[in-house]
């Protein structure tokens, strides 16, 4: 059984049709893209350039391993750190194992493949579904956003509670430093009733928290009859109370990642990738399933997920072209780069598009109110990207 995602999707084709489909392929895409098609075809034929996406669960070790391998930084977004090779040709070095964690240092990916995860924006505490997860690169990256040790990312994603606390504290500090006096009363009341601030004249004002405190403040502000009485009143006045500490929000639960793959051969690779790139503590929050998305999820998992990624099986036209060129250059089965019906057919594209629509409809039903769905393919066919 073939195990690539594009082959799995291209199983939908007309029975008994075994002639060369290269002419149909060329006619279809030249009709869509017109004069642009020759240059676009040339770009698709070029070898795919992969980037090393560092393992965010071992940031220091992965960065050191990338430097040792001669990789240079390419992109950094949140917990995502991607590197590239300095040489443009030759074999890609195998990702080494970190001896301390027994995890792979990086994962080779087409850099465009990280965009769906960045658009999905999984946040700590979310329940996320990767409906077509194999081979596992996007799943491992989503797990880094959900369960990774990057404290800055977690702080940014702890929701409006932290932002509200920061706004209140910032407003109180700004009012104190600016000497706004009583005009900044609401901000100081939010910090603590009766907090002392410096007025424009430099005198200490006390914000009355109660009627008794107000009368005390008024008597303290009145003119003194003599120095002795002023000393007695000053001695009777209690020192300013320190602001009460604000309660910090409890840390969010790590959430959950559900990885689904319908093809059993690809499912084995998904398991292997998760074991090699995720620590045990993170894998405890990951569930791997083997269902056909359009048949199972809409009926049994409705309104359960904060985010759903549908990296849908597709015709993978780039792979079709590259395999055709490889067959032509290496004397393969095609001999002249011919494309068999198993690789591509227009009827197969139409059937795949119908399956993708069913996947999207099922994913929409899985979402909770306010959730996010990201759909992506590796096809340039409008049928599969409508």
From TrEMBL:
Q: Where, by residue number, is the active site?
A: 378
Identify the residues that bind S-adenosyl-L-methionine.
Answer: 261, 311
Q: Which residues form the signal peptide?
A: none
Q: Which reaction does this chain catalyze?
A: a cytidine in rRNA + S-adenosyl-L-methionine = a 5-methylcytidine in rRNA + S-adenosyl-L-homocysteine + H(+)
| rRNA processing is among the record's keywords | yes
Ranges for the SAM-dependent MTase RsmB/NOP-type domain? 255-386
GO BP: any one term: rRNA methylation
Under the cellular component aspect of Gene Ontology, which terms does the record hold? mitochondrial large ribosomal subunit
**What keywords are annotated for this sequence in UniProt?**
Methyltransferase, Mitochondrion, RNA-binding, rRNA processing, S-adenosyl-L-methionine, Transferase, Transit peptide
What GO MF annotations does this protein's record show?
Answer: RNA binding; RNA methyltransferase activity
Tell me the compartments it is located in: Mitochondrion
Start and end residues of each stretch annotated as Disordered: 1-21, 221-242
In terms of superkingdom, the source organism counts as Eukaryota
Under the heading InterPro entries, the entry gives: MeTrfase_RsmB-F_NOP2_dom, RCMT, SAM-dependent_MTases_sf
Q: What Gene3D superfamilies does this protein map onto?
A: 6.20.240.40, Vaccinia Virus protein VP39
Similarity annotation: Belongs to the class I-like SAM-binding methyltransferase superfamily. RsmB/NOP family.
Name the chain's protein. Answer: NOL1/NOP2/Sun domain family member 4
The organism named in the record is: Astrephomene gubernaculifera
């Amino acid at each position: 059984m073939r195990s690539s995602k594009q082959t799995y999707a291209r199983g939908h084709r007309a029975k008994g049709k075994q002639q060369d489909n290269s002419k149909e392929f060329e006619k279809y895409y030249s009709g869509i893209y017109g004069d642009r098609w020759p240059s676009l075809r040339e770009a698709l034929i070029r070898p795919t350039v992969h980037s090393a996406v560092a393992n965010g669960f071992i940031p220091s070790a992965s960065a050191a391993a990338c430097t040792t391998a001669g990789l240079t930084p390419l992109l950094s977004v949140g917990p995502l750190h991607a590197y590239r090779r300095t040489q443009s040709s030759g074999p890609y070095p195998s990702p080494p194992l970190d001896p301390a964690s027994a995890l792979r240092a990086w994962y080779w990916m087409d850099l465009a493949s990280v965009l769906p995860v960045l658009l999905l924006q999984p946040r700590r505490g979310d329940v996320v579904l990767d409906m077509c997860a194999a081979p596992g690169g996007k799943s491992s990256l989503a797990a880094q956003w959900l369960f990774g040790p990057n404290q800055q990312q977690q702080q940014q994603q702890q929701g409006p509670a932290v932002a509200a606390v920061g706004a209140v504290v910032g407003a109180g500090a700004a009012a104190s430093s600016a000497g706004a006096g009583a005009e900044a009363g609401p901000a100081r009341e939010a910090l603590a009733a009766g907090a002392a601030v410096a007025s424009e004249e430099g005198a200490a004002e006390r914000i009355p928290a109660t009627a008794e405190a107000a009368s005390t403040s008024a008597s303290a502000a009145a003119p003194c009859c003599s120095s002795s009485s002023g000393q007695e009143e000053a001695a009777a006045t209690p020192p300013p109370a320190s602001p009460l500490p604000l309660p910090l929000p409890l840390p969010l639960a790590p959430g959950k990642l559900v990885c689904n793959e319908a093809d059993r051969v690809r499912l084995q690779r998904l398991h292997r990738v998760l074991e090699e790139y995720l620590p045990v503590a993170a894998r405890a929050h990951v569930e791997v399933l083997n269902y056909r998305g359009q048949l199972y999820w809409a009926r049994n998992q409705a309104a359960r997920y904060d985010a759903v990624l549908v990296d849908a099986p597709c015709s993978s036209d780039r792979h079709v072209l590259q395999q055709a060129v490889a067959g032509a250059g290496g004397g393969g089965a095609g001999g002249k780069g011919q494309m068999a019906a198993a690789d591509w057919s227009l009827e197969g594209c139409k059937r795949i598009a119908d399956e993708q629509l069913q996947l999207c409809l099922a994913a929409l039903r899985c979402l909770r109110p306010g959730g996010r769905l990201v759909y992506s393919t590796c096809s340039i066919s409008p049928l599969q990207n409508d």
